[in-house]
User: Fold this.
Amino acid sequence: MECGIYTISKYLKGKVRNINVPDEALLSILADNDLAPDTEYTEVSIEKKELCVADLYAWVALSPTSSSRVSDKDAHWEHSEGGETMSASVLNSYMRMANSIYKRYGKPMVGASKWGMVGRGFHNIRNGRDRNL
Assistant:
């Protein structure tokens, strides 16, 4: 393991297991939170860290459910990576985790519309109570 400065970028990449987060996605999350990718982890407030994590979870939840598979083969040697599929329940879990962080800091939640179709016509589906996605 490489020793050195533990940056906010490394922290965020470590928060999502086995998910390849493109640098562009990570940079946009950091830019939205006014952070540089090489900012030390200890210099970032808890609120900013958690909001970055929420943005990352929302990015994962809104990403495609499967990734393409890349294979290399030569004689008797074979290697492949990717080709992962995430279920809707896993994606919903990421969205719930993101929304719980957003709610804690009074930020607008993602995919949590207050109005929707219930029975006959449009109604307030929240009714002042929390609902799972």
User: Anything to note?
Assistant: The chain has four helices and four strands. The chain has a mean pLDDT of 80. Helices lie at 8-14, 23-32, 46-61, 88-104.
